[in-house]
Structures are given as structure tokens and as C-alpha cells.
Write a structure and sequence with these properties.
Blueprint: E1 5-8, H1 14-25, H2 35-44, E2 50-56, E3 59-68, E4 70-71, E5 78-86, H3 95-109, E6 114-118, H4 121-125, E7 135-137, E8 145-149, E9 157-160
Parallel strand pairs: 5-6, 7-9
Antiparallel strand pairs: 1-2, 2-3, 3-5, 4-9, 6-8
Helix pairs in contact: 1-2
Length: 169
């Protein structure tokens, strides 16, 4: 097991997070390779509710972003997880899982109602995420959009992420 320090992003981490995110998604499927621009846009728009890094040997090897989402029903205090990035040479070693557990715990402490994620259902179901009927994200296959409620109640409606998710530079 890697010796990790999990902490909130600091100003001097911005460039390292950009490079990490770019490299983590470089060879990934199902991506437009804009994740590093999305994180910067969320930060610029002050919608980066949580931004956590995983540090190993004084190097940032993982990052996760949390931002607010809108739900057409008007439900409040829901957030979107992602992007989550782990340096390619450290993938499959528990870095992403450590970040997931830490950021979800922080989100609970903030009083969040729940969290949504777009991604691999097999991976995210390990953290309690499930497909919720009638909670949707436009233009994506339903099985890849999942939610986790901190109070066991789920809103219904269409979820909208921040406009930062359209960033391309």
C-alpha cells in the first residue's frame, strides 16, 4: 500500500493538477480529453466545491473534483464528482479509492444531500453509487450515470453540471 497524504488543493498545486489530469486521461476511452480544462474552468468559476489531492513522496499523484449540480426538480445540496485522476503509473493501487472515500466523507460533513457521477458503473458502485430511475443526465447511457444519497432519498429529474464541463481549453 502506498504511503499517501490526502489533502485539499493549495494554490501551488494548480499546475501539477493540470498535468496530472492531462496524463491520467491521455489514453482513456470515452473522453474528449478536456478534463484538465474542466478542472481549471470550475476553479475559475468558483464552482470547485472540493478539490482534493493525493500526494506520495511529495508528488501529487491523484486528484478529485466536486462541483455543484442543478436538478430540474429543484432539489438542492447535490454535487457532481469528477473528474477524478490518478497518474498512470499509480493506477490500480488504491489511490482513486482513497480519494473517493475521503472526498465523500468531506461532502457529507458539508451537509450535502448526495452526489452524482458519470463513469464506469462497476467502479463507482463499490462506493455506494447506483443507477436511480428518473434521475438522468441528458445524452448519456443511463447505466453510466449514478447517484449516492447521504439521507437515502433521491430527487427525480434531469441533472445539469456546471457550464465549466464544456471547457475545451
Amino acid at each position: 500500500m502506498l504511503n499517501l497524504i490526502l489533502r485539499n488543493e493549495q494554490d501551488q498545486d494548480v499546475d501539477a493538477i493540470f498535468k496530472l489530469t492531462e496524463s491520467a486521461f491521455k489514453n482513456a476511452e470515452h473522453t474528449d480529453h478536456t478534463e484538465q480544462f474542466i478542472v481549471n474552468a470550475l476553479r475559475k468559476m468558483q464552482q470547485l466545491t472540493l478539490s482534493m489531492v493525493a500526494e506520495h513522496d511529495q508528488q501529487i499523484i491523484g486528484h478529485v473534483a466536486i462541483s455543484p449540480v442543478e436538478i430540474s426538480s429543484g432539489a438542492s445540496d447535490w454535487y457532481g464528482l469528477g473528474p477524478i485522476s490518478v497518474a498512470p503509473e499509480y493506477q490500480q493501487q488504491g489511490v482513486g479509492s482513497a480519494l473517493m472515500h475521503a472526498v465523500l466523507e468531506q461532502l457529507k460533513q458539508l451537509g450535502a444531500a448526495g452526489c452524482v457521477v458519470l463513469g464506469d458503473p462497476t467502479y463507482y458502485s463499490k462506493f455506494g453509487f447506483n443507477v436511480i430511475p428518473n434521475l438522468t443526465l441528458a445524452n448519456v447511457p443511463a447505466e453510466y450515470f449514478q447517484a449516492l444519497s447521504f439521507d437515502q432519498t433521491f430527487p427525480q429529474g434531469e441533472v445539469k453540471y456546471s457550464p465549466a464541463f464544456t471547457a475545451t481549453q
